[in-house]
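Supplementary notes (optional reading)

For those who missed the lab, this is the record we used. Protein: histidine kinase. Length: 387 residues.
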Amino acid sequence: MSHDTPARPRTESSRSWLKQEYVPPIIGWFGGLSALSLVGWTVAFAGTIDVPGLLLSAAFTGGPALGLIWGGYRLDRSDIETSRYARILQWCVGGSVGFLAINLLMMVFFPWYSLAGNISWAHFSVNAGAVGGFAVGYVEARAIQREVEATVATVRADQLANERELLLYLNDLLRHEVLNSAQIISGHASLLQAECDDERVRTRLETVERESDDLVDVIDDIRAMLEANRGPETHSTVDLTALLTAQVAECRSRFDEAVIDIECPASAHVQGNEGLKWIFSNLLENAIEHADAATPHVRVTVDEQPETVTVTVADDGPGIPDKERARLFERKSTNHGLGLYLSRILANRYGGTVDLADTGPDGSVFVVALPRASVADDAEASDYGRH
């Protein structure tokens, strides 16, 4: 936790006669007033007190007074919720009154030999009791605070586990039910087009097939987001070389006209899971689909740094107009669609970045930077190439 003043909720009871945030300055002011009283006592009895008595009063009365000043300052900058301040003040006042009562009883039967001594004794009782009560109240409040935070953390962890289980279920549902149904509809529409001679019916079948294909694309985008929200879990790593090789091979099979070159090390492990593939799938499709050449050419390069692994995707397209660059990664980007928006969202989700490094008449260059997996993570976790 930072030593600076942390942000915390300022809660208070509407029926309380004392605003909770006033408690720390009240404790500090009481300590300051007590220190001034010690000075006044010294001046008033300067002729009757000796040096040892003065030193004892400074230690046993001035010390607790300074402790109260520091306690008020520390409380105001602690992570204790203000709703617990009143309890601390109660302990502080109760400790002061209780300890004073005990010592007054002792003073009745065993009084000090001088008025200055009795006053100093009572002053010490008030300060020491207040400091002791403050310490008990502060420790109690911190213990309650830690217990509440631990309970909240446990509940939050359970909620996250339930949410992740639900996301996994939705992912499976999209993959095995909705996606399969959309592909079946598209396939049957395509077969019927080949057998139909009615031009109006063929036009409608083309619409069914086109809309089904668009639905498949939307499902893929949703699955990408769900996949990203599965992690990355602790110690989860992916061999980026294997992942990129698979994505390049898939794009080559889908886009026969495209030439895709890839240059990468034998392995390059990054933190994440299989959801990373959607980042590069979108970038590769974007580079090919927006090329103006008959044979689009895309080059993928992987470079390892001490803390990150950088992937460069360069194409030979017409470049991106100036007016579109500022909104390139927005969800409603007019020319490059949802793919680049998803790529940036997913890269951020995995602790990385994706940016447009260069664009012009000779093509565009996108750079993806992902956190490199540590040696320990690499040794403990299964990577993409082992699935």
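If you only remember one thing from this example: The two ends are 40 Å apart (CA to CA).
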